[in-house]
Structure formats: structure tokens, C-alpha cells
Inverse folding.
């Protein structure tokens, strides 16, 4: 097997390693190579040294923000996630990528087992679809400049610009949604109407506090339940909650 | 069903558990020889077989394609070749990869590349999102279509809990699902050692529908606020293009790129017939066609030996000029309001982004970072007064659209100091500033010139962060982190953020322009002044080459400074992981994660409290000044067990198993403090009201068990058996109000169900390796 002229040989990554190549010259065993990527016979090199070796060649736009990025400052190096001697690198395959990321991101691992999730568990949406682990100009290492730009890659129907905009949706999708998994579909942080009441106390909101009546007759309510409170609650009527392009859509009802 | 037999020998669990923080030396060494051989001569595989599903469940087959009982084809391939492999001396590689070919999760792709010169790839990726197989509706139409009518003679329903037998009989099942198909092409060409071009194109086709509320307008003889939950079509097409010119030099790199995203909706409206009033046809808008054109310049430069500069600027235009679709029953056509004469929003949002970051590691033990980011969402859409009805038939609106512009900046300063060889201390400071405004805001009687369109005009947040990381005994890594953030917001109490005509509810105590009349002292969760503390800690210990354990946790505490609204909240989580390699060919893993969320909000009760239903006719007068609180508790436990064992039965059998258990529970507890009620002695706990007390727990348990095994017949042939069990057991009051006989009187029941049950899938396949 061969690669092009840039293809590395052992010393490209592990350093000149003169002492290592000379072998056991002093009876104390063969010295370590200059750069050791995995703990084994020798202690692993410092994370900056390991990453530095990789970045000698693998520099460029996608890794421009590695230095100072969350993973770099956490002491993570490239080979902590990538396996370079294998024909298939788990983190580069959608089918196996999450196994690698969940090594550290354990709350996200738990989230994907909740009832409302992106198709993460089956490998159809994976971490790198939204995040750039090598550093990003956006928050939370999202791939694009903002959370919304990242979400709009797949959810362009939410992008608008709508005639009537809903401010939380415009500012940040994660104001209402939690993308890795939720107990409240669809990926909501809280159950409406309580979620809506966190920002709205006018008109309906403070007039009808949602108590056990949200469960309707099955929950013991002897009057008919309110369409403001059960099921989709506010969104039974205000269904265009991401924004409306109807000239009659100012209440997000059209 | 994703268990990757072919990964068994590559110690998946060593990755999954030890991962970044530890390694399993001897296992890795064992794998290295095989890996090197596989690199030189890759193995290709073709898999064919069949699977059987024992039941039907949209919920349990939500994404995996096993939503219906029956038999499915199992097919996949991973074929690789090219003269770069073996001893041919070339640099060409190609691959053809297909997965789940018999399911609605199928994917197929191919690549060919001449390393260092060019590459080309094509792919197809499909996914069906199954949303409901219990949904019922009396409406006739096509799931994915945009017209929903009632059957002839259906008549009028004034109360959905007392429909006639004929009307009940009209309810029919409609499976609800939405399918996405991604088809794409990627290509790259290295012009020389410094310059290269990259191109990506993706077409996302979406079909099907999602359920959405359709409220009937009560104008022109119709009855308002009658709600039908109907399939809203997702007949979308999104084309995405990326074209980049990249430069790579000795000391720096640069990239100039164009990103385009073009969204098209096949339907500009949905028409539906109301089941009340005059059975008239009404119109719902749909997401409009829109385009995004973004230009990016990004680069990095080595200023000094250990000092780097990275930066990026972006400019984008997001346009939307779809013609308005007017619902005559909601639009006040005769109005002289300026907006009512418009035919399109002609919306334009210009987005600008710039960032620059300098990192320095001149001093061996000190890493410094300084960064600045700037983001502008400049909404140049015109603002006009629009005159339209609410679906209730009342609350006519005569207010402007609020094209929101947002300006953000962030400063980051950070330092990482290596106190000792394996000890690192981090200190960081970030400052975020946000301004919100409208470039232009329509002027009217109630919106005098100079009126602000947004209440929270400016926000700023200062955050300091500290972290400490140390390694001990060459096998224990401990991380500690703490951050403290203070967010402060400027509020314009004279702002009139639309919704002006419906502000009566809170009377003199309300701000007329805030969210439809927020009480004075109420600030939204997103804006309220906040102090936030976050504590993180973790320890990962590799006791020996067989056993590793990790313990970690996070605690967040939020305190809000607002009279009404969110008061406080906290979240915490705890994780415990362990992995044990009991032999060179076997590993077991286990983990448990506990997550907890709690938050409390409070508000001022409106003076006249109407019982939970207008239909009950029971009104309860609540003393002015009464308050209510709402407390949410969310608790989740997730447990996982895993097993990998290779080389059984003389090296012929590999097995892998994963079990996950998740139990989530959410409850909201609402308390009203009013002391006395004046109507019939009722209080909030009376069954006719039930507006205080705890909501029933939303309690959902999911179990997933995967077991897979392969038997090697000979060097080229394997048989794979896979078993999948999925189970859901839960209760969620969400669905109560959509059941026939139990719905609100003005909501058409849908029979949507949570989807409790168990589904088993068994698969058998033959894998040929060459």
C-alpha cells in the first residue's frame, strides 16, 4: 500500500527518535520514541505534543480554531478520538461515531435514550453533523457561526425570514428545544403551556395556571378540559410558533 | 439494528469507556498487527439476509425502519479497492458502501479518489420518521397533501365530546410519517501543493407530514377556536451548495467559500374545512420559499513560532419574497392598514459575522487565548401595520410586524498554566453583549415614532471560569471546573412589541407592549437578570490494564432577579462508568447516569380567574394580588450494560450485546395562594377547576436490548444473527385531551397514543468477505 508524496512514515509522526532506533544501548531497555501516542510500553506524550504532531500536516480551515477551543483546553489530543492505524476510524463513521463522543459526553449519551430524540441512536444524525470537534467560531462547537445557522442546514423551513417572527425562535432554537433528547416531544425543554409561561404572562398565561387540569377528565377534572392547556396547549391554536408568513399570522395562528 | 460485528476485534468498548482518558495497551497491541494488515489489504463485504418484526409500532420504529410487523430484506455492502492497496504502487482508491438497503433507513454511497490529487463521491441517504400509527381524523385528504375536507354530510360539531354516531364512524386511521432523502455529490481537486478546490452539493427531499393544530376562525358566520389536529405536509426541497477555494502555505492557510441554501415548499397553503360554524374552507400558511447566500473568508496564520492567529468573516443574505396567501376569514381586507395592501413581505435578513482569535504558547507552561466575535442579524424587512382577526373572532389586531435585528459581540480571554508536569490550571473570562432593535418600525396611532419593537433592548453577560486538571499515578485524571456568570438586561418599559390590542387582561398592572401585557415586574426567562454558577468535576481512573472506572458530575444553579417570572432553577447530573476486560477477547462495561432539573416560577394572578374551561361556565373571582407558583422537577436515570466477546468456539464466534434502560419523570406542581374564593366555595383544588396541585407525572421508561453474534463458516463466510428488543412503558397526560369523549369540547379528538409496547426484531444474514 502506498499514498501520495505527503503520506507519512513512522518518523513523520513519532519524531526522529534516534535513541529509540539505536535500541537498548545501555541495558535499560529501548528508549521511547520522541512522540508516543498511546500509553503502553512507554508513557504517552503530552497532549499538546501529540496534537502538534498531527497538526503539522492536518492544518487548515476546519482546524484553525483548535487552539483555544474546548477540546484543546480540556487536554484532548487527536488520537484520543482518532485511530490512525486502522482501516476504519470509528469517529469518522456515522455508524460508530457517537460511541467515541459519548466516552466523555455522558449526559448526551443518556439523552439519546429518551423518548424524543434526533435519530442519533441509529446513526442518521451524528455529533459531527452539528458540531466541529476541532474548534468552531460558534457556541458549543457548532459547525456554523450560530446555533440557528447550524439547525437551518436541515430545517431550512424554519429559517424564513417570516413576516411575523417569534423572537426566541429567531435568537436561538435551543431556547425551547434541547437537541440531544427530551422527555417532552418534540425535543422540548419543558411541557407547554408551562414552557410558554416562562416568557408570557399576559392574556391567557397568567389567567389560567396549568395545574392537574392539564390531564383532563382522565386526571379527575369534572369540567371539560381547556384547549389552552391540554395536548399541544398554546400550540393547539398558535401552531405557527416558529413564525408566520401570513398577513393574518401575527398571533401565529395562521 | 446497529451492532457492529466487524468492530468487535477493535475493542469498541475500549474506545467507548476508556477513550480519550485512558487506553488499553495490550488490547491495542493485539489489534495493531491486524490493523496494519487491514490497512494494506482492506476486506470487502457483502451482506444479504432477512429480518422479522413481530409487531407494529410507529413509536418503537420511529426511526429504525422497523415500524410495521413483517419481513424485511437485510442488505449491505462495503467494497473497497484501488491500486493504492497491496503492492500495486498506485494512489487510487474507490469504495462502494451500502447499509440497511431493505429498510427506510437505507443509504448507498460511492467514492473514488486519487490521493493528493482529486476525489469524488456520491451518496443517497434515506430516513423515514414515523410519528403516529394511531392518529384518527374524520377529514379526508392525502397524508402529505394540502387539502383536508370533511366527508359529505358530516355536518357540524358543536361539541366534540358529543358527536353523533355517524360523525364518530367517520374517524379513520391515518399513518403519519415524514421521509427525508438526501442525495449528494462531493468533489475535491488539489491544483497543486498549496491550492485546492472543494465542492459539495446536497438535495434534501422531504415528503409526508407532521401533525399541527388548525384553529378555525370565527368570522363570517363561522365559529372560532375550533381546533383540528391535521397532517401538515412537509413537501420540501432544500438544495445546499458549498464551493471553497483553499490555500495552504507554510505559515498560514486561507479559504474563500460560498455556501448556498435554497428552500422550496411545494405548497404555499393548506386548506381545511372547519367542523363547526358554516363548515367553510379556511387557509393556513406554510413555511415560505427562501434562499440563503453566504460568503466566507477564513484563515489562520503563524504570527510567531508559538503564536497563531485565526479569523473568519462571513456575509450572508437570507431572502424571502413569497406572495402572501390571504385567508379571507382572518384578514380584514377592507382595512386601510398599510400591511393589508402588501403582497409579500419581501423579507431580507443580512447576517454578518467576524471573529478573530490569537493563541500563544511562547512560554512552555502557559497557553494564552484572546478572541473577539461579532455577529449581526440585520433584518431589513419592512414593518407595516397589519389588520387581521384572531381565530376567536375577537381581539382584532391592528399592529405591525417586528423585523428583529440583533447585534452580538463576545470577548474571550483565557490562560492555561501548567503548574506542574501533569497539573493544569485554567482561568477564563468572557463578556457577551447583545443589542436588539428594529431598523424600522411602523408608525401608527398606538405606535408613535420612536417606539421600540422589543422590550429587552440590551443584554450583557460577564462570566469567569476556572478549571484545574491533574493526573496522578499515570492512571488517574481529575478535572474540576467552576464558572460564575452575571447577566444583566436593559428593559424599555415603553416598548410596544406588537400584541397591543390584547393587553387588557392585566389592566393597569400590565405593561401594554410587553408580550401581550406582561405584568409589571415580569421578565421573561430569556431576559431576566441572572446569576449562574456551574460546577463540574470528573475523575477517570485506570486501575490496571483490565479495569477502569469514571465518575463525573455537573451542577448548575440559576438565580433570577425578577419579581414575576422565573425565580430560580438548578440542574445536576452524575455519571458512573466502568469497564472490565476479563480476557484478551472479552470486555464488559456498565454505566449509570442520573440527571435532575428543577426550576420555580411565580406570577401574579389575573384579577378575574376563569375556571379551566369556558364551557363549564364557572367563574371564580380571585382577590387582586393573588399569586401562583409553578415548580418543575425532572428526573432521569439511564443505565447501560455492554458485552463484547470475540473468538469463542475456537475463534469462530463473536458476540456483542448492549442493554440500555432509561426512566424519565417530569412533574409540574402548581400552587395558587388565594385564600378565599367567592363563587360557590370553590377553590383551585376543586375537581371542576384543578388548577392547583401537581400534574400527573410524565413518566416514561424505555428499554433497548441488542444482541448480535457472528459465526465464521470459513475465512470468507460468516453468518450473523441479530436480536433487537425495544420496550416503552409510560404515561403522559399529553394524550388525554385528544381521546374521543375526553377532548376539549372544541378540539377534534385524534386518538394519538404514547405507544407503549414491546417490539422484537430478529435478523439472520450471510456475510461474504473478499
Amino acid at each position: 500500500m502506498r499514498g501520495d508524496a505527503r503520506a507519512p512514515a513512522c518518523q513523520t509522526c513519532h519524531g526522529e527518535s534516534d535513541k529509540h532506533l539505536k535500541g537498548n544501548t545501555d541495558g535499560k531497555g529501548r528508549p521511547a520514541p520522541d512522540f508516543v501516542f498511546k500509553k503502553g510500553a512507554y508513557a504517552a506524550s503530552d497532549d499538546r505534543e501529540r496534537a502538534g504532531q498531527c497538526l503539522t500536516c492536518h492544518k487548515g480551515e476546519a482546524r484553525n480554531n483548535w487552539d483555544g477551543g474546548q477540546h484543546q483546553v480540556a487536554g484532548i489530543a487527536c488520537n484520543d478520538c482518532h485511530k490512525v492505524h486502522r482501516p476504519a476510524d470509528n469517529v469518522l463513521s456515522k455508524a460508530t461515531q457517537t460511541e467515541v463522543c459519548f466516552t466523555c459526553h455522558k449526559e448526551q449519551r443518556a439523552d439519546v435514550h429518551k423518548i424524543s430524540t434526533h435519530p442519533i441512536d441509529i446513526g442518521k444524525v451524528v455529533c459531527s453533523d452539528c458540531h466541529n470537534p476541532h474548534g468552531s467560531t460558534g457556541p458549543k462547537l457548532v459547525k456554523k457561526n450560530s446555533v440557528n445557522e447550524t439547525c437551518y442546514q436541515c430545517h431550512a423551513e424554519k429559517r424564513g425570514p417570516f413576516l411575523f417572527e417569534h423572537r426566541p425562535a429567531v435568537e436561538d432554537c435551543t431556547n425551547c428545544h434541547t437537541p440531544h433528547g427530551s422527555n417532552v416531544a418534540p425535543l422540548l425543554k419543558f411541557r407547554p403551556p408551562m414552557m410558554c409561561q416562562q416568557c408570557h404572562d399576559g392574556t391567557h398565561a397568567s389567567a389560567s395556571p396549568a395545574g392537574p387540569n392539564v390531564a383532563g377528565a382522565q386526571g379527575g377534572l369534572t369540567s371539560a378540559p381547556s384547549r389552552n392547556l391540554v395536548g399541544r396547549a398554546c400550540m393547539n391554536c398558535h401552531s405557527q410558533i416558529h413564525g408566520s408568513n401570513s398577513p393574518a399570522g401575527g398571533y401565529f395562528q395562521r | 439494528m446497529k451492532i457492529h460485528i466487524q468492530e468487535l476485534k477493535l475493542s469498541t468498548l475500549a474506545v467507548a469507556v476508556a477513550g480519550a482518558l485512558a487506553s488499553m495497551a495490550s488490547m491495542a497491541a493485539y489489534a495493531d498487527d491486524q490493523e496494519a494488515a487491514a490497512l494494506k489489504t482492506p476486506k470487502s463485504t457483502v451482506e444479504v439476509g432477512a429480518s422479522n418484526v413481530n409487531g407494529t409500532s410507529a413509536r418503537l420504529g420511529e426511526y429504525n425502519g422497523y415500524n410495521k410487523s413483517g419481513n424485511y430484506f437485510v442488505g449491505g455492502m462495503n467494497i473497497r479497492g484501488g491500486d493504492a492497496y497491496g503492492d500495486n504502487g498506485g494512489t487510487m482508491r474507490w469504495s462502494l458502501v451500502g447499509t440497511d438497503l431493505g429498510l427506510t433507513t437505507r443509504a448507498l454511497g460511492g467514492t473514488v479518489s486519487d490521493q493528493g490529487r482529486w476525489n469524488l463521491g456520491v451518496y443517497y441517504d434515506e430516513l423515514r420518521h414515523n410519528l403516529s400509527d394511531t392518529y384518527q381524523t374524520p377529514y379526508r385528504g392525502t397524508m402529505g397533501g394540502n387539502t383536508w375536507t370533511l366527508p359529505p354530510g358530516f355536518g357540524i360539531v358543536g361539541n366534540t365530546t358529543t358527536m353523533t354516531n355517524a360523525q364518530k364512524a367517520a374517524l379513520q386511521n391515518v399513518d403519519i410519517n415524514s421521509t427525508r432523502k438526501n442525495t449528494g455529490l462531493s468533489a475535491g481537486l488539489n491544483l497543486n501543493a498549496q491550492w485546492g478546490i472543494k465542492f459539495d452539493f446536497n438535495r434534501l427531499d422531504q415528503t409526508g407530514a407532521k401533525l399541527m393544530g388548525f384553529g378555525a376562525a370565527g368570522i363570517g358566520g363561522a365559529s372560532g377556536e375550533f381546533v383540528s389536529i391535521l397532517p401538515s405536509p412537509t413537501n420540501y426541497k432544500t438544495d445546499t451548495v458549498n464551493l471553497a477555494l483553499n490555500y495552504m502555505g507554510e505559515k498560514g492557510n486561507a479559504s474563500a467559500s460560498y455556501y448556498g441554501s435554497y428552500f422550496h415548499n411545494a405548497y404555499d397553503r393548506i386548506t381545511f374545512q372547519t367542523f363547526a360554524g358554516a363548515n367553510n374552507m379556511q387557509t393556513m400558511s406554510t413555511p415560505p420559499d427562501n434562499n440563503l447566500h453566504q460568503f466566507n473568508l477564513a484563515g489562520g496564520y503563524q504570527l510567531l513560532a508559538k503564536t497563531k492567529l485565526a479569523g473568519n468573516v462571513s456575509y450572508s443574505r437570507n431572502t424571502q419574497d413569497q406572495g402572501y396567501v390571504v385567508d379571507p376569514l382572518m384578514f380584514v381586507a377592507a382595512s386601510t392598514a398599510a400591511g393589508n395592501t402588501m403582497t409579500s413581505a419581501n423579507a431580507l435578513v443580512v447576517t454578518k459575522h467576524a471573529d478573530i482569535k490569537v493563541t500563544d504558547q511562547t512560554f512552555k507552561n502557559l497557553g494564552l487565548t484572546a478572541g473577539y466575535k461579532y455577529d449581526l442579524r440585520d433584518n431589513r424587512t419592512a414593518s407595516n401595520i397589519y389588520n387581521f382577526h384572531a381565530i376567536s373572532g375577537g381581539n382584532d389586531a391592528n399592529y405591525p410586524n417586528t423585523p428583529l435585528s440583533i447585534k452580538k459581540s463576545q470577548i474571550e480571554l483565557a490562560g492555561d498554566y501548567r503548574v506542574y508536569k501533569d497539573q493544569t490550571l485554567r482561568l477564563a473570562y468572557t463578556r457577551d453583549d447583545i443589542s436588539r432593535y428594529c431598523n424600522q418600525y411602523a408608525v401608527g396611532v398606538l405606535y408613535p415614532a420612536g417606539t421600540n419593537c422589543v422590550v429587552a433592548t440590551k443584554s450583557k453577560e460577564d462570566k469567569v471560569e476556572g478549571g484545574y486538571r491533574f493526573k496522578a499515578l499515570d492512571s488517574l485524571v481529575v478535572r474540576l471546573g467552576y464558572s460564575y456568570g452575571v447577566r444583566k438586561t436593559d428593559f424599555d418599559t415603553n416598548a410596544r412589541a406588537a400584541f397591543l390590542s390584547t393587553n387588557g387582561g392585566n389592566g393597569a398592572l400590565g405593561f401594554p407592549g410587553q408580550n401581550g401585557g406582561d405584568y409589571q415586574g415580569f421578565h421573561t426567562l430569556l431576559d431576566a437578570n441572572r446569576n449562574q454558577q456551574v460546577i463540574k468535576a470528573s475523575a477517570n481512573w485506570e486501575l490496571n490494564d483490565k479495569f477502569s472506572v469514571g465518575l463525573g458530575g455537573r451542577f448548575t444553579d440559576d438565580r433570577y432577579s425578577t419579581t414575576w417570572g422565573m425565580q430560580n432553577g438548578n440542574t445536576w447530573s452524575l455519571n458512573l462508568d466502568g469497564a472490565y476486560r476479563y480476557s484478551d477477547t472479552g470486555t464488559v462495561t456498565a454505566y449509570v447516569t442520573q440527571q435532575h432539573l428543577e426550576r420555580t416560577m411565580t406570577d401574579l394572578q389575573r384579577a378575574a380567574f376563569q375556571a379551566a374551561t369556558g364551557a363549564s361556565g364557572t367563574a371564580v373571582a380571585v382577590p387582586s394580588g393573588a399569586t401562583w407558583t409553578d415548580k418543575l422537577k425532572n428526573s432521569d436515570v439511564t443505565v447501560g450494560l455492554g458485552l463484547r466477546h470475540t473468538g469463542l468456539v475456537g475463534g469462530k464466534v463473536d458476540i456483542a450485546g448492549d442493554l440500555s434502560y432509561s426512566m424519565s419523570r417530569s412533574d409540574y406542581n402548581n400552587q395558587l395562594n388565594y385564600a378565599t374564593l367567592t363563587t360557590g366555595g370553590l377553590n383551585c383544588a376543586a375537581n371542576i377547576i384543578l388548577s392547583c396541585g401537581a400534574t400527573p407525572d410524565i413518566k416514561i421508561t424505555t428499554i433497548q436490548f441488542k444482541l448480535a453474534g457472528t459465526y465464521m463458516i470459513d475465512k470468507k463466510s460468516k453468518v450473523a444473527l441479530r436480536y433487537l428488543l425495544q420496550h416503552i412503558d409510560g404515561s403522559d397526560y399529553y394524550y388525554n385531551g385528544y381521546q374521543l369523549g375526553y377532548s376539549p369540547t372544541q378540539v377534534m379528538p385524534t386518538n394519538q397514543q404514547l405507544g407503549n409496547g414491546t417490539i422484537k426484531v430478529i435478523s439472520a444474514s450471510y456475510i461474504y468477505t473478499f
In short: The helical segments of chain B are 12-18, 25-40, 165-169, 648-651. The mean pLDDT of chain B is 89. The first helix of chain B runs from residue 12 to 18.
